[in-house]
Amino acid sequence: MTSPLTATATLQTQETDTGLILIAPHSELEFPIWQAGFRLRRGGELILQSASGWGSPSSNLNLWSVQQDHAVLTYNRGTHGLGRLTVVALEHGWRFTWDQPTRDVISLASGKHWYGQGELINQLFPLEAASVWEAPLMTWDNGPTGLGNIQEAAWITASGVALIVEEAAGTLQVGLNAPPAAIQPPQWDLNASQSSASVRPHPAMAGASGTLTLSDRRNPLSYMLLVAEDMVKVHQRFTRIIGKPETIPPEDFLREPIWTTWARYKTKISQDVVLQFAHEIRKNGYPGGTMEIDDKWQQFYGDSVFDETRFPDPQKMIAELNANRFNVTMWVHPFLEGGSRNTSEALRQNFLVRRMDGRPYDVPWWQGRAFLLDVSNPYALEWWGEKLKTLQTTYGLAGFKFDAGEGNYLPADAQCFQPIQRNDYSSKWVQFAAVNFPYCEVRSGWHSQRYPILFRQWDKFSTWGLDNGLASIITTALALGMAGYPFVLPDMIGGNAYNEVTADKELVIRWTQASAPMLAIQFSLAPWDYDQETVDICRRYAQLHVDLTEDRLRAARQAVEKGAPVVRPILWVDPHDMTAQTVGDQFMLGDTLMAAPVVMKGAVKRDVYLPAGNWRDYWSETRYTGGQWLRDYPAPLDVLPLFVRE
To answer: How confident is the model at residue 81 (pLDDT cuts 50, 70, 90)?
Structure first.
């Protein structure tokens, strides 16, 4: 993390009978001598402060020394002797660096509202609306405390502060508004492939901690506190630190909907099935620029050739799809099972993750057990890249859907070519995909914000709620955008139809409406499997997605220029609007379009909040003045409330 923002600022000090005040042009830090803690103020306004237990096992501030741009604070640590905290004044914030492991505790209330971090299985908005037990911060394919596939040790507050943990180690544990001590945390196995889907972050409980905790028993903590006038400005500074994409994903990938075989067919696919699917899409008058061939096009997982029984002439199939105006992508992952020829080759060349005794490590995943590609090995990545490029050029593929890559699939005791932390598996897998195959989607991420590719949300359930249903595609897009991921794909319309829980027509229609104003959308469940009304309404909103292409591309280019998310919380219009700060069922597309989808079953109206400015209904041209609620706004089944800011 290097940036002009890490340049130091001139530091002034004020010593009082009660403590030390460090003064920089942007803010002031107060450290009281009778306890371990801090208060951060901007122009006299308190914008962040520690909570009881900050710096534990430190107790009270003892001594300090101040230089031109930094101070060294010495704390008593009981039987542990002394602990030192170095505080550096940055151009737009502060850096805290401990010399010993600590547990730092931050008051959530002092930041007003919290955003960022990444995916939760129960994606509440803002973050303090959830109670998350303190646990390892890891990219998970459904983690036991509710963590999902994309995680960052980074948070932004409504008060205008960004907290970024630097060089977050694999031993970092994070808790957010943790449940009270009387409620026992779930037991989890850090080597398990997945947690039960019923174990997710609870909504904020009575007696919850009200704190953000950062804890590392092995490594000293170091984190930045960036400061700005408001949340939008601090997000800009945040993205300059963490990095932002230098270009947008391929426009051909964004202009029309993506269609995938997964939710409708699962593994029951073949050449005839794919071609029939494409024929039905066009017969029903739907736009679509990409056809994604999902599991199971190979005979064995890890193959880089088609299963000849299912796909007797893949070149002909892809040529027909191209002629039908579909680019074609295929599903790939880092798992190689025993029957694959590629697995034998990878074993001979030591390209797989291994156990302590040198044997290849067979890891559990959702299709059984398989070996795991060693992404720390550049030779293994080059080998796998050549396999995929040969597949791509042989059959004329546009790119790939890169699945998995979460840190939980790399066992804690695994041996790799180079020592890596478990989250590094995600960052290296995403980097491999982005650098070699830009026409792609991924679903994991760790320090991956700068890559100009689509980051797909975790597999959604065919349900309505924030607990990984329809409502969560909005809150997850907002969370990822605030964590610095601007290019988000909201998973498949209608969810994945897991465990025979299928979406009804109303859910499919409302899901299509909610996805239409987003950067990209993906169909799999077919509207024509319901009735003609479903076909007509969903087609209308698939076409709306196409009609909004220039708006979507403009918002994507703003992400490149300014780091702003494509899908933004409505508080982006007025970051000081306290009502807007908590609205999680509406979103902005870029600067001018605001969507208020219906995300409650059976609803034909909803309350809509208009932030500051002048607005007009996209459909009726009716004008409204912002700063107000539109109560019981009509939203019959065929209507997405959509507004234009003038």
So the answer is: confident
pLDDT tens digit string along 470-484?
Answer: 999 999 999 999 999
CA atoms within 13 A on the CB side of 587: 31
Residue ranges and CATH numbers for the domains of the chain are 4-242 (2.60.40), 251-334+375-412+420-562 (3.20.20.80), 568-645 (2.60.40.1180)
pLDDT average, residue stretch 318-342: 97
Burial class (CB in 10 A: 0-12, 13-18, 19+), 246: exposed
pTM metric for this prediction: 0.96
Maximum alpha-carbon separation in the chain:
83
Residue 589's beta-bridge partner residues?
Answer: 567, 593
Closest CA to 249 of 619, 575, 640, 556: 556
HEC secondary structure over 404-449 = CCCHHHCCCCCECCCCCCHHHHHHHHHHHHHHHCCCEEECCECCCC
Strand order in the sheet with 61-66: 61-66, 70-76, 82-90, 93-98, 222-227, 161-165, 147-157, 114-120
pLDDT in tens, 243-292: 999 999 999 999 999 999 999 999 999 999 999 999 999 999 999 999 99
Q: Which of 152, 150, 166 is nearest to 405 (CA)?
A: 150
Between the alpha carbon of residue 91 and those of residues 13, 22, 47, 225, the distances in Å are 16, 14, 18, 11
Residues 131-171: pLDDT tens digits?
Answer: 999 999 999 999 888 999 999 999 999 999 999 999 888 89
The single residue listed with the structure tokens 């859910």 is 507
Q: How far apart are CA 562 and CA 42, in angstroms?
A: 24
CB 287 within 8 A of CB 543: yes
CA separation for the pair 557, 570 (Å, rounded): 19
Q: List active site positions.
A: 403, 406, 467
Q: What is the mean pLDDT of residues 327-337?
A: 98
Q: How far apart are CA 163 and CA 223, in angstroms?
A: 7
Q: Contact, 38 vs 106, CB < 8 A?
A: no
| Cβ pair 539, 284 in contact under 8 A | yes
Beta bridge partners of 96: 87, 223
Residue 159, token pair as written in the block: 């008060």
Q: How many residues does the chain have?
A: 646
Give the confidence band of 184 by pLDDT, cuts at 50, 70, 90. confident
3-state DSSP assignment of residue 641: coil
